[in-house]
Design goal:
It contains 26 helices and 33 strands. By secondary structure, it is an alpha+beta fold. It is globular and about 80 Å long. The chain starts with a helix and ends with a strand.
Length: about 800
Amino acid sequence: MSGREGILSPIVCTGLSWLCARKQPRVDGTLRVPGLHAPVEIIRDRWGVPHIYGQDMLDVVFGQGFAQAQDRLWQLDFQRRLASGRLAEVLGPAALPTDRLLRILGLRHVAEQEAELLAPEVRAELQAFADGVNACLASEPLPIEFTLLRYRPEPWTVTDTIAWPMMVYWNLSVNWEAELLRAQLAARLGPELAAELEPDYCSRWPCVVPPGADYAGLGREAQELAEQARALAGPPAQRGLGSNAWVVAGSRTASGMPLLANDLHQQMSIPSLWYENHLVAPGLNATGATFPGVYRLVVGHNGHVAWGFSNGFPDVQDLYIERLRHAPGRGPQYQYDGAWYDAPVRREEIRVRGKGVTVEEVVHTRHGPVINGLAPHATGSEPLALRWTCFEPGTMAQLIHDLSGAATCLALRAALRSWTGPSQNVVYADRAGNIAYSFPGRVPIRRQGDGRVPVPGWTGEYEWAGYIPFDELPHLYNPPQGYVASANNRPTAGDYPYPITCDYCSGDRAQRITEMIEACSAIDVAWAQRVQTDQVSPGARLVASYVGQLEVHDPELAPLVQMLHEWDGHLSAESPAAAIHEALVPRLATLMLRDRLGDLTERYTGKGPVPLLADGSLFGFRAWEWLQATLPDARSHWFDLGHGETRDEVLRLALAQAAADLRQQLGPDPHAWAWGKLHTLTYGHPLGQVGLLRRFFNRGPYPLGGDHTTVCATGCTFYDSGAGQAVIGPSYRFIVDMADPSGACSLLVPGTSGRPASPHYDDQVQAWLDGEYHPMLFAREDVEREAESRLVLVAE
């Protein structure tokens, strides 16, 4: 911060705080609004969570829209503009690159198509939700962001509720950029050497569905098609950020009933990308979290069944190398199966505040939009079209409608048939004592290839032959081991007949969760809290075991080696050994890779190809896998830096470089080093990037433990993990013991409200840092006891 900013910032913050205080929504009393059938109560507890009671579901969803808009109206508007490519209308030219990318993808057009296909009961609820948002917009003061940016939001629509999840699905689908990098690595190194950079999935890491699961129900025709694809492409890769979702059977719990735990890892922002609420109507009592701008619940429980997710990273995207030409008088054409076809051109007009209109023309082939404009430096000159399952209209709004109404595991599995977004690892449990796991969603069956690299689009050989049937997707029901643990690790073992994905996270978190489950015979909620906040990394233990046995004669390195020798892999914020490990790993990887990979080193170690849409990459986990797989071989050629170096020589060199970095950053005494002095978390607001507004909107930095390999996953952008700034972490946690769903607990960080003057803007940060939770209030008497405010909406 400059000296001028330092002087002005307190003045600006005081003025903005005064303005915000005048713009707070009404949370007590009675308010007349149009569109209700009967009164709706919105009771907020002392954590700001709204508990919404009504006489029918349409009224409750109306109240949900109203409450969300009270707490998060600017976030709702910002997110729909982002997904629709309309930020530049209010933010000006700085947002134009983002808008261009989103217009190329055309997510808004898909949302409009989905809106046309909604079932009547779903459309009615989405309209009621929109009516609630608009009632708030018409009656409540606008948040401070609208004043600062000098605009007023448009009314909310049904399509808006569908559009933001489309953006979430894009963030959950990562294969397109992995395909680009694989092709570049193969061109740089040759296919054999490039293949070494994606080693087999580590044998000590668990799969979500263990080997030997019963796949006898798979259809013969689909099996044959999968075998044909496998024969042409070779065996699928066997390799292991996202979330943790796990469930244990009553045989392993203190209560004798199932226990489910879910923590959802997303960008750590303010306000949160999740919104916690409790909905009560005749026939429904459900609590949990949803995305701001989305109705009902995405995860949670309803007293009968609980459910949670972690990303499965399915391969639902393929890049096709296209042959295009411009025919005189006809425009662009693409070649397919020996013939030329007209390529539709979608004209996108982007309004830019103060600058008029910019036009983006998007060419489509039979496979999808040509996306070279997303990442020109990475895609090259050959036209690349993207096929993605989510470009086809789906039924995710129906799914969200059905999930919260399921009363058993079997009913919830039936609801999952509507899942058309990218596959998630879904764990669930019911009051009858059942636990289950499913991997729902559209996963392509490919005629040829396995989706790992771009393929010719003009031959017709690499088309999709449909999707894996729902009943043949991975599924477990009351598994014999008595638990299911998912942490974005590999979903299935090698005996599953379909290639599902080769882009997923390392198995460190899953390994640690499994270790802790296996070590406890009476699991309860308090124990589950310790698991969710655990900061031990099995992979860090492995690296430390090799560094800790080094022979060193440098007196400055010897104490560092001793610290790692004695270290248990606990990445606490106070740990000097954790700081040494985290500084060492990127140095070691760079030493081993830079001479061969050159400018692809950062991409391989986790830098995404598009800062705006894909800043990080799962390939950082491939590099982590590769490093762990290479360390046991002391004479691997990867350790040869040009003079026949061995593993221990390179480890000493990397340690010396890491030590120099740490002395520069933290001082000369290694015993005073601490990971949390480097590894910090700042909850950033979209407007907090502006100097004078940073102090007003943002919160932090806070010292932090853990990393992307610990159960308490606090990941950096992987390619510069030594820089320390955490960007992804557990933004929402909840734990439910099905013996007493009313005793569930949760935490939404940084807080429920997106209004800076609200006491619930950041009131859960310290609890999150301390590993604490609050009760997930469910019974009416508990809600009344903890009530902080009560607003009654009545019909005009």
